[in-house]
Amino acid sequence: MQLNLLVLRARDPHALADFYGSLGLAFQLEKHGSGPVHLSCETGGGLLEIYPCHEEQASTRAVRLGFTVDDLDARCIAVASNNGRLLRAPHSTRWGRRATIEDPEGHTVDLVEADAV
After folding, report:
1. Is residue 105 packed enough to be buried (19+ CB in 10 Å), middle (13-18) or exposed (0-12)?
2. Where are the beta strands (DSSP E) in 1-117?
């Protein structure tokens, strides 16, 4: 089994897509039938989509994401300049070099350096 879709909800979908763009993801606009316009990005076997969020109960803030990235230090600097918040600076663990950030919508994101995987 493989995860093939993850949907995030955001008050400002374009700002959230810009944030994830600083991690190297490239989003495009999509619309399916009568559904809302949203942003979509392929993540190497899966799809990450960002939909608009108009109600607090539709929030996905409790979702925790994880990405393998190249150059962990540079990615942490980039997300900080895109309204992200560094929760735990890059550090070595038995699972590799990692950092934890928070995106502009409040999702927690774990980053692990590619060489450490």
Report:
1. buried
2. 5-10, 28-30, 38-42, 47-52, 64-69, 85-93, 96-102, 108-113
What lies within 8 Å, CB to CB, of 9 at 6+ separation is 50, 51, 52, 53, 58, 59, 60, 105
| pLDDT tens digits, one per residue of 57-71 | 678 999 999 999 999
Q: Please, which contacts does 52-55 make with residues 24 or more away whose CB atoms are closer than 8 Å?
A: 52/9, 52/10, 52/11, 52/13, 53/9, 53/10, 53/11, 53/105
Q: Is 72 exposed, middle or buried (0-12, 13-18, 19+ CB in 10 A)?
A: buried
Is the distance from CB of 39 to CB of 50 less than 8 angstroms?
Answer: yes
Residue 116 is predicted with a pLDDT of 56
pLDDT band at 80 (very low <50, low <70, confident <90, very high): confident
Report how far residue 77's alpha carbon sits from residue 82's, in angstroms, rounded to the nearest whole number: 9
